[in-house]
Amino acid sequence: MKRFKQNLDGDHLSTHLDLDTSNALRDPDRKSGLSSMKVMGIFVAGLIVFSVLFSVNVVLRDPPSDAVFETSKARVLEVEHRKDSEDQFSESLEVPKDKLLRGLLADGFDEGSCVSRYQSASYRKELPYRPSSYLISKLRSYEALHKRCGPYTESYNKTIEQLKSGYHTGSLDCNYVVWISFSGLGNRILTLASAFLYAVLTNRVLLVDPGVDMVDLFCEPFPEVSWFLPKDFPLKNQFDSLDQKSPHCYGKMLKKNSNFTNSAGSVMPSFVYLHLAHDYDDQDKLFFCSQDQTFLEKIPWLLMKTDNYFVPSLFLIPSFEQELNNLFPRKETAFHFLGRYLFHPTNVVWGLITRYYQAYLEKADERIGIQIRVFDTGTGPFQHVFDQILACAVKENLLPEINRQDFIVSPLGTPKSKAVLMTSLSSGYFEKLRDMYWEHPTVTGEVIGIYQPSHEEYQQTEKLMHNRKAWTEMYLLSLTDVLVTSSWSTFGYVAQSLGGLTPWILYKPENRTAPDPPCQQAMSMEPCFHAPPFYDCKAKTGVDTGKLVPHVRHCEDMSWGLKLVDS
C-alpha cells in the first residue's frame, strides 16, 4: 500500500512537470516571467507530498491510539495487580482472629450458612483459656462417629429396626442418647451441653429433639450430618408423655426390681428413659453411680429429659474421672468450651446480635452487663431490687456515683464511656438507671449509656420471637467486659460461661429487702447444678457431695447446688 501510494503520487507529479516543461519550450517569454514562481510552487508541492507520504508511512507501520491505549491499560492493570498483591500480603502479616478458637471448632463448614460460627471470634477478646489437645482430639473423634452413625446412615437405620422390635440382643455399631426438648431456653442450653458431654464420655451419638424452635435458634455444630432427630423417629410421639411413671423410666424399673441391673440377662430393653428433671427421685439419681452406668452401656437408646446442668455430678462418677481430667485440666472451663463448640446463633439471630452490638455497645470504652431475674410475685419494678443493683454496681466500682450538686463535671482529657447492657422482663429498672445517669453527671466525668434490647414483661417459652430475643440477649451479655447476674438464673449462667466471665452475683432478696452486701463475685464462671444427688454410691448412704473433691463445691447463689471450680 505504501509503495502503491508513492507510485501514484510520483506519476502525478511527473505529469505536472512534463506539462510545465512542454509549455515553457513553446512559450519562452512565459517561462522567463514566471520561472521564480514555478520554482517556489514546485518546492511547496514537494513538501506537501513528502509530509503526506511520511504520515501514511507512520500510520501503516505503527497503528496509534488502540495499541497505545491497550499498552497503557496493561501497565495500569499490572500496577493494580501488584498493589492488590502487596495489600493482601500486608494484610496477611497482621495476626488474624482465631476463627477456629485454637482448634476447638472444625474447619470446612459453609460459612454463609452459619455466619456466627467463624465470625463470632471478631466480637470477643481472645480466648483466655486454651482447650486441651485431648479435648480437641476427642471432638474430632466424635465428629467422625456422628458422621458414621448420624440420621439415615446405614448404622442408624439398622439400630432403628431393633428399636422398633422393642428388644435388644447382641451388640450394635452405634449407640445413642436422645435429648428431649424441655423447659426454658437457658435450661435447654445447659442441659444440651450436659447431654453432649455424657455422649462423648460414653461413646454415644447425641440426637436433638428440635422441639418448636431449636432449628430456628442454633446452627448445626457437626460437619455433614445433622444433630437433629428425624421427624419419623419411632418414639417421637411419646416424648410428651414420658415421666417417672413410664414403664421404660430407669427409676421405675429399679423400683419394680431393685436387682434389675443384675438380672436383666441377655435380652435388654431397646431403650431406657432417663428422668433427670428437678423432681427426680432417689432411684432416678442412681444414674450418677458407676454400677448403673455399666448397665446403661448395654442399652442402645437412652432418652433423656432434664432441666438440670448435671455436669458437676459427672465429675463425681469414678469411671469418668480420669477422662474428664484429661478433657478439662482447668475444671471451670467445661461449659465454656462445650458452649462455644455447640451453640452458634443462626443467621437470623446473629443479625439481631450484631446490629445491636454495633449500634450501642461497640464504641464504648467498657461494656457492663446487668442481668435481672426477679422471682418475687407481683408487678415490678421493685424499688429494693433497683437499690440492690445500684449498690452492687457502685460498691464494686463497676459504675460511678452521680454528682447531685453540680450540673456539669468536666473531666481532664477525653471522658471514658461505659455502655451498660441491661436485660430484664421489665423495663422499669432500665428506665430508672437511664434517667439517673441522664439527669445527673457522674463524679468521675465518665459518660454512661444505658441500653435494654427488649422487655417482654413475662416469660413466653413457646413463642419463637421471644426465644430469639432471649438467645440474642444471652449472647450480648456474654460479649461484655464485666457482668452482674441474678441468683438462680440459668439465663445468667449461659451468658457468663459463654463469655468466660466470673460474674458478680446479686443475692436473692428476702422479705423484699435489698441484701447487705448486695452481691458477691463468683468462684468460677461455671453454671450451678440446682438439684444434685446427695448419695454415696459405694456406701449406699447419704453424703454431702459438695465436699468430696476440691473441684466440686456448693454454689454461691444456691447453698445445696454444685458447681465446678479450680482450687
TrEMBL record:
Gene Ontology molecular-function annotations: galactoside 2-alpha-L-fucosyltransferase activity
Top-level lineage group: Eukaryota
Localization, UniProt: Golgi apparatus, Golgi stack membrane
Record's keyword terms, sorted: Cell wall biogenesis/degradation, Glycoprotein, Glycosyltransferase, Golgi apparatus, Membrane, Transferase, Transmembrane, Transmembrane helix
Gene Ontology annotations for the cellular component aspect, listed alphabetically: Golgi cisterna membrane
InterPro entries listed in its UniProt record: XG_FTase
Keyword Cell division among UniProt keywords: no
Function as written in the Swiss-Prot or TrEMBL entry: May be involved in cell wall biosynthesis.
Record's protein name: Fucosyltransferase
